[in-house]
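Example record

Each entry pairs one chain with its bound ligand, adenosine-5'-triphosphate.
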Amino acid sequence: MKNNEQKVMLTGVRPSGNLTLGNYLGAIKNFVTRQAQYKSYIFVADLHAITSPRDPAELRIAVNDCIAMYLACGVDPEQTIVFRQSDVLEHGIMGFIMTFQTHMGELSRMTQFKLKSQNVGKNGIDTGLFVYPPLMSADILLYNTDIVPVGLDQQQHVELTRDLAQRFNKRYGDTFNEPDVYIAPVGNKILNLQNPTEKMNKSDGPNPGTIFLMDDLKLVRKKIMSAVTDSESVVRFDEEAKPGISNLISILAATTGESIESIEKRFVGHGYGEFKREVADAVCNLIGNIQTKHQQFKNPDVLDAILTAGAERARIVAAETLNRARVALGLK
Ligand code: ATP
Ligand code: MG
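C-alpha cells for the complex follow.
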C-alpha cells in the first residue's frame, strides 16, 4: 500500500487548439488544487495531437502555448513534473503494448470514437482516432497513477485503462497500478454556449459558443451574454429541459465555488440578463487573472528548461514501469 505522499496524480491535454474554459474547469483546476497532495504529473499529449494530420509549425507553437497556459492556471513546476509526452519515448512502446491488450469491440464502443468518427474526411476514419485510448492507458499506467482528474468525456477511457491494467496483471502477473478517475461534481462537462447539448471542444476552433482562456475579455462577455437560453426566464438547474441555463449555472458554480442550490435561490425573481452579467463577471475575473499570469510564462527558454527537467524526471519512472512490463511479457 502506498501512503498518501506516494500517491500519484496525472492528467494531460491534447495540444489541438487553445485551451477552453471547459478544459480548465473540467481538468486543470482540479489538478492544480490537488497538486501538493500527490506526486503530480501533468503533460502535453502531443502524440495524441497527431492522430489526425497537423501542421508541424503550428503543433510546436501549440505545445508551448499549452505549457504556458498550465503555468498560468497555477501548475507549479517545483511541485509537479511537467513534460511533453513525445519526449518520453516509453509512451510509444507502452502504447503499442496496451493496444495489444484491447479488443476491437472495446474501442468501437468508446463514445468519443463514435462521436468523432461521425465527421470524417474523404479518406475515412483515421486509425489514430480508434487506437488512441490504449495510448492514453499507457500514459496513465507508466507513472503508477492512482488518480486521474479529467472531464466526464474522458471517464470511459480511464475506466478502460483500469480494465486493461487488470487484464494485463491477471495474464502476466502484478505489473500495473489500477488508477481511479476523479470527476469534479460540478463543471465536468461544460457545453457549447450556442449549442448547449454539445460539449465545448478546443478543436472546434473560434466560434461564439466556445470560451477560450486567451479570448479578449470583451469577447468573453459577449459570448456569455448571447448564450442560448430558453423562454422560461427562471434560473433553475434542469439539464434536460433547460440545457443553456443549466450550463451557465454550472459555469458560475464551478468558477466561484458557490453551490447550484444557492445560485438558484439568489436568482429567484431575477431575469436572465442579470444572471448572465454575473456569470460574465465571474468568468472574466477568472480568465483575466489567468491572462495576466500567462504574460510571465511566455519565454520559450523558460518553457524549454521546464520541459527538459520534467522529461528527465518522468523518464526515470516510465523506464522502470516499461521494464517491468517487458519482463512480465517475456520480452526481456
Ligand atoms: P479536443 O477537441 O481536441 O478533443 P478537448 O477540449 O476535448 O479538445 P482534450 O485535450 O480532449 O480537450 O481534454 C483535456 C481535458 O479537458 C480532459 O480531461 C477532458 O475531459 C477535459 N475537457 C475537455 N472538454 C471539456 C468540457 N467541455 N468540460 C469539462 N471538461 C472538459
Ligand atoms: Mg477531447
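The two ends are 27 Å apart (CA to CA).
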